[in-house]
Write a structure and sequence with these properties.
By secondary structure, this protein is mainly α. It has two domains: 1-43, no CATH class; 48-126. Helices cover 75% and strands 12% of the residues. The chain has a two-stranded antiparallel sheet with strand order 1-2. Strand 1 (5-11) and strand 2 form a beta hairpin. It is rod-shaped.
């Protein structure tokens, strides 16, 4: 059970107001003060404007970074498809069997599709 400290307000020797205070550590007092200050700040128009601006900025940056991600992955897939196309040509001229050239062609078509569809997704967003 916590001990409580009693305090009172006296005027000319008479008790005007009596109150009971529970002993708090300095950390608890600072926590209470910070919570009250935070509640007061959240009620201001400036805080609301700053939060709205932060949300808008984050949304814009997120959209731009998403587009950049699609562009970079599209480029990488098209570059890999180009390498696959060179491999297809090399296998087609060297080997007359269907196995390796078909595999190189499938790789080229698959990665080409991934690259083109990545750029299509960017167009669809805008």
């Amino acid at each position: 059970m916590r001990k409580t400290a009693r305090a009172g307000v006296f005027y000319n020797g008479k008790l005007i107001k009596s109150m009971t205070m529970s002993p708090l550590s300095t950390g608890q007092k600072l926590g209470i003060a910070a919570r009250v200050a935070g509640q007061q700040v959240r009620r201001t128009r400036t805080f609301g404007a700053v939060m709205k601006a932060g949300r808008m900025t984050a949304a814009r940056w997120g959209r731009v970074l998403g587009q950049l991600w699609l562009e970079v992955t599209g480029f990488v897939f098209l570059a890999l498809a180009a390498i696959g196309g060179l491999a297809f040509w090399r296998e087609w001229t060297k080997h007359r069997g269907p196995g390796r050239p078909v595999l190189a062609a499938a790789f080229t078509l698959l990665f080409g599709w991934f690259g083109v569809s990545s750029f299509w997704r960017i167009r669809k967003r805008h």
